[in-house]
Amino acid sequence: MWGLLHSILLLICSMEAVSDIGVIDGDTLDTSLGRVRLLGINAPERGERCYSESKQAIETLLTGEISLERDLVDKDKYNRFLRHVHSDTWINLEMVRTGMAKSYCIAPNLVYCNQLANAQTSAMNAGVGCLWSPSGNRCIRILDVGDQEIVVKNYCSSTESLEGLYVESDGRQREYFSGELCAGCEEFLSLNIGRFAMLFDEWGFIDFRAS
Fold first, then answer.
1. Model confidence over 142-179: pLDDT tens digits?
2. Rounded to whole angstroms, how far apart are CA atoms 127 and 69?
3. 21 confidence band (pLDDT: 50, 70, 90)
4. Cα–Cα distances in Å, from 149 out to 107, 188, 195?
5. Structural domains in the chain?
6. Per-residue pLDDT averaged across 126-147, rounded?
7. DSSP string spanning 149-177?
8. Which residues contact 106 (CB under 8 A, 6 or more apart)?
9. Rounded mean pLDDT of 114-127?
10. How far, in Å, CA of 99 to CA of 208, rounded?
11. pLDDT tens string 187-206
């Protein structure tokens, strides 16, 4: 159904060529059309881990002629144009594939959602890019996820600190653990799980589960 709607849309709205590109961060550009938010991805904000690396990555990808492809919804609530960005490559996908942005799909702009989510799965499994560079934490891992919670377990033989440990969903929700976790013990946090539940600490990526 989404594929048919998208095909009809493309017959009405062809690719838009733009110029005067300015990079705000890894998922937002200023263009001759106006401010553009890249569809289907979410890059680190200023002050977050990998912000500079993500911004530099998209700057490197913006070569040659730049064109924009829309989906069903033209703009977001901030009046930014929602677009897939193409240069010598499809930049939205390349940012996810190289571990510089996460997939982040919001209905009804879902035509490429599965492709972007699959690219993130591959990047996480391979530990690719700044976002998925592994932490040194090998004790606390994800044990299980449900629709509304995530469970972690301490697989080591000593009590481990939970400080700085947090989980994210691909809906951008983030929740932090606190305290300590005894050997073999489990801890859970409530979280609205989307396609992924991801575990991080301040040093990097630890683990994930696909829901």
1. 999 988 899 999 999 999 999 999 999 987 789 999 99
2. 29
3. very high
4. 22, 7, 13
5. 2-126 (2.40.50.90), 140-210 (2.60.40)
6. 94
7. EEEEEE-SSS-EE-TT-EEEETTS-EEE-
8. none
9. 97
10. 14
11. 999 988 888 999 999 999 99
N-term to C-term CA, the chain: 23
One DSSP character per residue, 112-140 reads THHHHHHHHHHHHHHT-TTTTPBPS--SE
- Two structure tokens written together for 102: 């996460």
The three-state secondary structure class of 17 is: strand
Residue 80 tokens, joined: 């930014």
Where do runs of H (alpha helix) occur along 13-106? 51-61, 91-97
Tokens 């677009």 correspond to what residue? 83
